[in-house]
Here is the input.
Amino acid sequence: MKRILYIHPIAGVDHELEDYLQKIKGPDSELSMAVLDRAPQHLEYYYYGALAQADLVHRALQAEREGYDAAILGCFYDPGLREAREVVQHTVIMAPAESSLHIASMLGHRFSILVGRRKWIPGMLENVIRYGLAPRLASFRSVGLGVLDFHRDPALTARRLEEEARRAVDEDGAEVIVLGCTMQYGFFRELQNKLGVPVIDPLVASVRMAELFVDLRDSFGWSPSKVGEYESPPLAEITSWGLPKTYGVEALWPS
Amino acid sequence: MKRILYIHPIAGVDHELEDYLQKIKGPDSELSMAVLDRAPQHLEYYYYGALAQADLVHRALQAEREGYDAAILGCFYDPGLREAREVVQHTVIMAPAESSLHIASMLGHRFSILVGRRKWIPGMLENVIRYGLAPRLASFRSVGLGVLDFHRDPALTARRLEEEARRAVDEDGAEVIVLGCTMQYGFFRELQNKLGVPVIDPLVASVRMAELFVDLRDSFGWSPSKVGEYESPPLAEITSWGLPKTYGVEALWPS
Amino acid sequence: MKRILYIHPIAGVDHELEDYLQKIKGPDSELSMAVLDRAPQHLEYYYYGALAQADLVHRALQAEREGYDAAILGCFYDPGLREAREVVQHTVIMAPAESSLHIASMLGHRFSILVGRRKWIPGMLENVIRYGLAPRLASFRSVGLGVLDFHRDPALTARRLEEEARRAVDEDGAEVIVLGCTMQYGFFRELQNKLGVPVIDPLVASVRMAELFVDLRDSFGWSPSKVGEYESPPLAEITSWGLPKTYGVEALWPS
Amino acid sequence: MKRILYIHPIAGVDHELEDYLQKIKGPDSELSMAVLDRAPQHLEYYYYGALAQADLVHRALQAEREGYDAAILGCFYDPGLREAREVVQHTVIMAPAESSLHIASMLGHRFSILVGRRKWIPGMLENVIRYGLAPRLASFRSVGLGVLDFHRDPALTARRLEEEARRAVDEDGAEVIVLGCTMQYGFFRELQNKLGVPVIDPLVASVRMAELFVDLRDSFGWSPSKVGEYESPPLAEITSWGLPKTYGVEALWPS
Amino acid sequence: MKRILYIHPIAGVDHELEDYLQKIKGPDSELSMAVLDRAPQHLEYYYYGALAQADLVHRALQAEREGYDAAILGCFYDPGLREAREVVQHTVIMAPAESSLHIASMLGHRFSILVGRRKWIPGMLENVIRYGLAPRLASFRSVGLGVLDFHRDPALTARRLEEEARRAVDEDGAEVIVLGCTMQYGFFRELQNKLGVPVIDPLVASVRMAELFVDLRDSFGWSPSKVGEYESPPLAEITSWGLPKTYGVEALWPS
Amino acid sequence: MKRILYIHPIAGVDHELEDYLQKIKGPDSELSMAVLDRAPQHLEYYYYGALAQADLVHRALQAEREGYDAAILGCFYDPGLREAREVVQHTVIMAPAESSLHIASMLGHRFSILVGRRKWIPGMLENVIRYGLAPRLASFRSVGLGVLDFHRDPALTARRLEEEARRAVDEDGAEVIVLGCTMQYGFFRELQNKLGVPVIDPLVASVRMAELFVDLRDSFGWSPSKVGEYESPPLAEITSWGLPKTYGVEALWPS
Here is the structure.
C-alpha cells in the first residue's frame, strides 16, 4: 500500500476536493490531503507563492518524516517542486504541471494549456520550458476566470473551457488539452467527451504519476539524482546555523 | 489484471529476456512476449528497421485484436511507435526510448544516453527531438559495441557502460543515465549502484509506463488523440483497396 | 546523360504524371518512372507508409542495381529517404520535401507549406525539423483535400491552394510557398503568377536536385557520408541472416 | 540623488562588502546595504532560497515603503526578482545575474559563467534561459569552491577563477567572463587584466543597472509592465485575507 | 562630462531630431549630432544600408579620433554596429535596437516591435536573434508607413502605432512595446500613457545605454572584448595595403 | 549557355583561382571572374567587409546590366548576399557559405566548418543561423591560419585542415566537412580521400548551385521572392535622391 499526501497550498479544508482525490487515486494507494497552517487563498501571484513556498517545502519534508511514500505539491505552478526534491531523501515529490505535460506529450503531437488569466502565462511558460517540453506546446489560452471562480459558477467555467479548448484544437493545432489549474478539477471528463480529444486533469496526472514513481523507486531504486540539481543541503550546515529554530521547524530536522 | 504484450522485433525466442520481463512487470499485469515471424537479428540500421516495421505494426495491431491492453515495441529506436498508435483504436502502445526519456526527465536536470555505436546517434537524436525533450539531453555517448555484443561478454559491456557513464556525469553534466538499447537489459542496477545516479533500463521504463497508461485509459478515458497525428486510416479505404490481402494480413482487418 | 528513376509509391500507371515528369527534367537527363508492385493508393497515413516503405527502399536499391544515377522517392513525406541513402552505395537518393525546402530557403526569408489535411502536419513538421530548416518555416496551412482529390476537381484545388497561399503570405509572413504533396503537381505555375511569389513544385525540386547531386558526385566525389547516419549495413550480416530470401529480394543482394 | 538599497540575503553585517559597494556605486547615488533579520549563510541550495525568499521580497517591499528608488536582491540566483517586481509599484528591482548577462551580451559574442560548484548550474542555466540570453551562453564552468570559501583563501580563489576563465576563453569560445556569485566580488579587475577580456562583477552590474533604470523611470516613465507577468496582487485580497498579520508584515501593507 | 556623438545616417540637418536628442540625454553628457556627407534619405532597403555602411563606420571611427566617449549609430537596423565595435579601440559604440531590446527585456516578459513596413521584418528579426533575445520576442507588427511618413502626418502615425500596439498587447501577449524606427521618436510617451505598458523609444534607449557603458568603461575597464568577434584589424595591414588612401580616409588612420 | 560571373572581392588578378573556376564549372556554363577596382586583400575583419560591400553589390548589379545569368559573391562570409538579391531583378545571386551548407545538409547528419581563425566564427555562426541550418552544425574548428596563408605553405595548410577535420569527425560527430573559406580551394579532394567523408569546397558549391538556380529561374520562374526581404528599392527614390551620382554609379541606374 502506497501512502500519498496531497498538499493543498491553502489554509482551509476542502471536502469536495478531498472526495475528488479519493476517487482518482489508484487501488493500491492511500491518499490523504494536507492543508497549510497558513496560506493565501490562491497562488495566482508570485508574491503569494513566495509566502507559501517555505511552508510547502516544509510540509513535504514533514511528509517524509511521517513516512509518506509520496507528496504532491498541489498547484499548477508546481510551487516548491525543485526545492522539495532537493531536500527530501527518498520521498517521491510530484507536481501537477510536470506530470500533466509528460502525459500529454505521449497522447498527441501538441498540447494547449487552459489557464485562468493571462497573468499566469509567463510563469507557466517558464515551467514548460524548464521541463524541456516547449516544443510540444501548441498554445496557452486564457478563460478569463480566477482560481476562486472555477467552482462558483461551474456552468460558466465549463462553457469558457470548452470555447477556448475548441479554439486551441481548431486554430492552434492542439491535439490534447491540459487544464492549467488544479482547481479546474471535475471538468475534464465532460469536456473530453464534447471535444473528442484527451483532456488532462492535473490532479489525476500528479496522483497517478506519484504512484508510478513510488513503484519505480521501490522496485528499481530510481529516485531523483543527488548529483547536481537535487543535491541536498548538508545537515551539518542546517543544524550548525540553527535554521530549524530560526524558522520554527525543529520538529523536521534532527538536532 | 492488465494484459501486456512485449514485441521483440527479432525472429527467435530469448528465454533470458522473457524471464527478465517477468521480473520487472508490475503485480497487476500479465506480460507475454511475442517475437516476429521473420526479422533481422538487430535493428542497428535503418534498412533493418524498414524490413521489420510493417510486421511490427501488424503485430501490435494483432495484439489489439487479441485483446491485449498494451503492446510494447521493443527497440530503443521506438520503431513503429507512431504508426502503431495511429492504427490501433484503444490498445496502449508504448516504446522504450519515449518512456525512458520522460522518466529520466523527472529524475534529474539532464540525462545522457549510452548507445552501442556512433551510427545510432542521429536517428535516436531525432527521436529525442521528436519527443520534445532535447533541452534535457546532456549527451549521447557510444560504448563501441553492437547489439549482439552486449550479452556476449557481459563483463566488457559492464565496464564500457561504466566508463562512458562516468564521462557523461563528470564531463557532460548528466545527472541521469539512460541505457540506449533494450538489449542492455540487466546492467542498470549494478551500474546505478556504482555511479550513484539513476540508470534507466528502457525495458523497465516501457513496461511500467504501459501499465500506467492502461490505468489512465481505463479510469479516465485518456487515449492518444485521434485528432491530428494519430488519426486512423479509414477502414473503408483499407478494405476497398484490398490491402489486407495484398499484405497477407487478412486476419487483422474485418472484411 | 544522367539516368534518373522517379519511384511513384503507388501500384498503377499514371500517364499524366509521367508526361509531367518528362517536361520538368533537365536536358541531360533520361527520366523513367517506376511504380510499386503493390501499394496503398496514397500515403496520407503512417500505416500506409509502413506498408510501402520496405518496397520503396528495395525499389531504390534495385535502381542502383540497374545502374540508375539517381532515384527519387515520390511523396512529400519523403518516405524511405534515410533508409535508402543508408543502403545504397553510390546512387543519388532524393526526395520531394527535402529538395523543396532547401530551394525555398534560398528564395525568400520564410516559406509556408500547403498540405492537404491537418493530419499530415505533425509528420511533415518533424521532417522540416529533421532537415534543420524549422527556423525558415512560416506556417503549415491545410487546404482540406485528400491526395486523391487534387486532380478530381482541379478548379477547386486551384482555388483552395490560392486561398491558403494568400493567407500564408498575408498573415503568416511567408515569402515563398511550397506545395506539400507531389500530387499537387501542375498547379504551381498559375498559382505563382497569381500570387507574385515563387511556388515550389516538389516534383520539380526533387528532379532538379537529383540532377545536381549526380553532377556533384561524378565531378567532385560528393556522396552521402558513410561515417555516421548513412553507414551501410554489412553485406555479411544481410546474407548470413538470409534476409534476401526471407523478404523475397534475392535479386537485390549478391549471394 | 538616487537612493539604492542593496539587500544582502544573509543575517549579519559584512563591512568589507559594504565598503566595496560604496566604491562601485555611481556619483549620483546613495547606497545602503540591508541584511535580513534571519537567513541561511549562503543560498547554494534551493531550500535555503525558499527559506529566505519571502523575507527578501518583504525587504524589497519595505525599501519601497522607505522611499528607496531601487532595491537590489543580492545573490546570483536572483532570488525573488520576479516576485519583487510584481509586488512593488515603482521601486526599481534589480538582480545580479540579469544585469550581468545583459551587459556581457553587449561586450562580446558569447560569455561564460564561473560558478562555485556544479550544483548551481541547473538553476542558473534556467535563469539564463528565462532572461532569453541562452543563445549567448558559451558555457558554465565550476571552480569547485563554495560561497563561503571565496574570501577565505583569496589566492586560491583567484587562481581557480583564472584557470577556469582561461579554459572558457580557449576551449568554449567565451569572449566575456561573468562571475557567477556576488561573493566573488573583488576579483574581477585583476582577472580582467590577466585575461585581456572583460570580466563582469555582478555587484557592479546590478548597482549600475539599477541606477540606469531609476533614471529611465524618472525621465521616461519606464517601469516594469503591469500587464502580464508583473501584475500586482490586489491590495483588497491581501488585506481581506489577513496576510499582513499572518506573515508578520503589518508594517508593509496599509490596513 | 561624457561626450556622445549621435550619427544620423542621413545627409541633411534635422533640427527637430537634434532638439529631441538634447532633451533625452542625461545630465552629465554633452551630446552632438553628426550627419553623413552623403547618404540615402532612409535605410529601409539593404541596398541603402550598403551604400551608407562604410561612411557610418568611418564616422564612428572619426568620433574616436575626435575624442568622443561614445558614438551611436542612428537607425533601428543597427547598421555598422559590429563593424564599428571591431574597428574602434575604446569608444563606446551603441545602436538603437540592441539597446532597446535589452531594456525591454527587463521591463516585461515579452516585447513586440512596431515596424514601418513588412519589408523590414526579416532583417530586424535577424538582429533580435543575433542579440540572443528572440525568446523574448512576442511579435513584429507593421504599421504600413515608411520612414519618411512618420512625421508627415503625426496624427495618422500615432493612430496606427496605437492600433498595432494594442493588437500586440491583446493578441500576441506583448507586455512591452518597442518602436522599431528611430524616426518614430516623439511618439512613445503618449502611446505609453494610452496603453498602460512601457513603450521604448530607441533614441532614448541608445543614448542612455551609451552613457551607462561610458561609465562602465571608465570605472571598471569594461569594453568590448577584443578576443573574438571584435578583434580589430591590424593597423599594419590597413596602412601597407593603402586602404586609407583608397577609400579617402587618410585622416582617420595614422600613416 | 549560362553566363556566370564570379566576383572575387579583391583588387587583383588571381590566375590560379581563375583556372580553378574553369575546371569546376558545369559544361553548359561560361564562367568569368571579376575583381573589384579597389578592395582589401582579404575580408577577415568586418571593417574590410564594410569597405568592400557597396562595391560588391554594385559589381553584382553591373553583372545584371551586362546580361549575366548569375553572379557569385566570392567569400565564405557571403558578403552582400541579401543586398544583391534585393537590388537585382532577375540575376541569380549565390554565395559560398549558403550554397555549401545546403549541400552539406543533404550529405550527412551534421557538418563542421573549418575556419582560418577564431575571429571568423561569430560572424559565420550568425550566417549559419540566418540560413536556418544551425541544427545541422556539429562545430566550427579553426586551423589558425589567415586567408593569405592558405596557399603560401600548402603542405602546412593541408596538414592543419586534416588535423582539425579529423577532430571534427571523431570528437564533434561531424559527418561532412565544409571548408570555411573560398581561398581554401584546391584542398578538398585530397582531404576527402584521406578522411573518407565528403569535404565541401565552397567555390564548387556556389558555382554549381548558381547553375541550378539559373535553370530553375529559366524553366520554372523561380526567383527570389520580391514580397518581403528581397523587395527592391524603388527606382524613383534612387534617381530622385541622386544616389547614382553621389556614389559614382551612374552607369548602373537608368536616369
Notes: Chain F has ten helices and eight strands. The CA atoms of residues 213 and 219 of chain F lie 10 Å apart.
